[in-house]
Each structure stands twice: as C-alpha cells, then as structure tokens.
Amino acid sequence: MIDPQRIQLLNQKQFVGSARFLVYWMQASQRVRQNDALAYAVELANSLNMPLLVYFGLSAAFNEASVRHYRFLAEGLLEVQQALKERSIRMVIHQAGVVEGLKKLIPFAAGVVVDRGYTRTDRQWRKEVAEILPVSLIQVESNVVVPIESVSDKEEYSAATLRRKIEPMIDYFAQPVELKEVKHSSLSVEVPFPSANLSDLPALFNILGVKDRGGKALQLRGGEGEAQKKLSFFLSEHLDGYATKRNDPSLQWSSGLSPYLHFGQISPVDIYHQVRSYDLEDVPVFLEELIVRRELAMNYVYFNSLYDQYEGLPSWALKTLAHHEMDRRPYRYTYAQLEAAQTHDPYWNAAQKEMVEFGTMHNYLRMYWGKKILEWSASPKEAYVTALSLNNRYQMDGRDPNGYAGVAWCFGKHDRPWAERVIFGNVRYMNDKGLERKFNIQAYVNRIEAQLKS
Question: Phi and psi dihedrals of 265, rounded to 5?
Fold first, then answer.
C-alpha cells in the first residue's frame, strides 16, 4: 500500500475503462525494485482489469548531457526492460521526445501514472501532459525518503532547519514496497511507434544527436544491478570509517552512488534499510548525507524557481559578492582554460581532469573546485555560470538537484556569512593550504595522473 502523501492528482480527469492499457510513465525512477510509482501502477492496472504498459521518453541533446550520460541511462533502461518482461510487462521507449511519445499513446490509454521529478524540465513535462491528456494523470513520489511537501511548504534556509523537520518523519515514510504480479500481460500489446533499440547505442546516439565530450567514463556502468553491487561493496568495505575518511580526496571512501540516485536506478529507501542494518557510528553520518543533505537539495530546486541561476542565491551572498566584484583577481581564466584544466593549481587541475575523463569528482574537492572558479573569474555571475555548466556537462550526476545545490553552496547557499575577505566577501573561502594541511593531497594528484595514463 502506497502512502497517500506520495500520491498527487495532476489533473481532474477520469480513467477510461474501455481502453487497451494503463500507462506507467517511467522517467525519474528507472528501476523495478523499491519503486512506489511502479507498484502503484501495477495495483491500479489490476484493479482496472487491464494490462500495464511502461513508457519511457528520450529527449534529444538533453541539457548538456553527452554520450556518457546517455550510455549510462541506456544500460539501466535495458536492464529494466528485461526485468519487466520477466514480469509480463512491456516497456516501450520513444526516441523522438518525451511528451511526443505520450501523445501517440493517448488514444489507447485508460490513464497515466508518473513518478516525480523536481527540476524545471521534469515539472514542465508533467504539466504539459496533464493539460493535453484526456484521462487521469497521477504522480507518485518515489525518489525521496520523505515526500517533499510533507516536510516543508517553503525553501529551507539550511540543513539545520530541514533536519529538525525531516528526522522525525523518516521511519514512518521509509516503508518497503511490495511489487505485485500483474493480472494481465502486456507483452503482446501494440503501440503506435517502434521502441528504441537499446542494443545498438551508436545508432541511437546518432538519432538523438548526442555529442561526445570528455572521456567515456566506462568505469561507471548503469543499471539496478550495478547500483546494488556498488552499494554492497560500500557497505562491506567503506561504511566502516566513512565518518572520518569520506572527506579525504587521497582516499576512495565515498559510496559512489550519486549517479545511480540521479538516474533513479536505486531507491534512497532501499539504501536506508540496508545501511541501517549495520551497527556502526558511521551510519548516522551517511544517512545525514543520503536523506537530510540530498532532500535539502530537492527542497531548494522545488521551492526556488531560480535554482539554476545566479540570482537565486541568498540575498546576503549576492550583496557581499557584488560589493567585492571589482576586487583584483590575482589569476583569471577563461571557460576554455578551465575546461581544459589549464590553471596554475595542480590540485584543481587534477579534480577537473577527473571530472572530464571519468565523470566523477570527490565531493570535498568539488567544493574547492567551485570556490576557485569564483576566485579566478571576471565576476561572481560568470563564475556561477561556468561552474554550473562544467558540472552539468561532465559530472555523471550533472543536472541533478544535488548538483545545483552543490554549485550554489560554493557561492553561499545553505551556508552562513563568514569573516569578510577580498573577492569572496562573506562567502566561505577555501585554499590549497587547507588541502595540504588536512590531506595527503599530492597522493590524490598522483592517483588521477596514473589513471589518466592507464
């Protein structure tokens, strides 16, 4: 049974009992396991006594995403498609637009169930479909532990303000979901377009017009199975020690789950239950990152309409950065120089190369990376635009609420004013001396350089 607070009617239309099938529009939750939206859709299809068709729409050249992102996405979808087939559920993938494919299914659909996304594009897709769809559209929230509007009705100032609200609600909402068997197979259901061939990725990328930037990031393979393997390895090898070692770039002590959470290939509720089974002092620290910090980012993107713009930063940050905008910059780099990791700072260059070639960057270094872009750009706004563009273009979890919040944090979001200094004003400052004092940062540089040569 899905909690009612996860369910939202997006229009006031009715189901059509004489239609061919019910549609689950899978977009944000690209998995079978612990998927509230899929579980709800199966139960609804069974109650309507009809087959369930799962639909996914591919958008061409999506917001700076490149071949590496589409490959990771396609690997996951291929796995989901096969898992659904084993459950007698057909999954079709439209390769010429998200909404366009749904329009073609409208004449045959009894109604549509969709998972929830938070970015502007995600919400616009759902809004457009809600308006054109002549049947019911129901949204089921499945990518957060606690439904976003159950926690707060406003943009939260910081992790501290959200934490007080969300922590008492976690156990109630973190409920395992049982996926029932469908009563009617949809494997022989006909649809008015051919499903994309996920086994021929070069041809698919050509159709979509996807660009190939940076490295292939082949060390990251998409899919539910890979996500579960990554989680199992983290639990057995790196959960113990996570609290003290996670921020050290010279160590590889992070979970590596961010790309899988971004594509919805693993549920935070699933992660929560597996982590909670360990009796370690590191568990609360990890759950703080998984739930409080991650869902603070969701809150930011949902309630701040300028979440991807410089003007969306806190007023105090905008004021202090504007006051110091004319301060002399000892170094100034262009977008092209930054993209190519051509700066005087070997630590920053290594972090940038890691992101460009491998699609990841250590979280602590991502904060340092963003702070330096602010320090080396002609203006704070130019720095913000540069940091967000590079993050979205090369991070495997780019274009994610965590990415938007992470970049904004470098400019003062979810932080407090600090002692005033040149260029940064009251925004928190970071420097290379801090890296050298806290970590064996040269070991990190050496590791990245060795990986680049291998």
Answer: -85, -5
Q: Does 155 lie in the same domain as 110?
A: no
Residues 244-260 have pLDDT tens digits of 999 999 999 999 999 99
Tell me which amino acid residue 340 is.
Answer: A
Q: In what order do the strands lie in the sheet with 90-94?
A: 7-9, 137-140, 109-115, 21-25, 52-57, 90-94
CATH of the domain at 414: 1.10.579.10
pLDDT in tens, 41-85: 999 999 999 999 999 999 987 778 899 999 999 999 999 999 999
CATH code for the domain of 72: 3.40.50.620
User: CA–CA separation, 256 vs 397, rounded Å?
Assistant: 10
Q: Contacts from 244-251 at CB under 8 Å and sequence distance 24+?
A: 246/285, 246/363, 247/363, 247/364, 247/438, 248/364, 248/438, 248/439, 248/440, 249/351, 249/362, 249/364, 249/365, 249/435, 249/439, 249/441, 249/444, 250/439, 250/440, 250/441, 250/443, 250/444, 250/447
End position of a domain, from candidates 277, 303, 329: 303
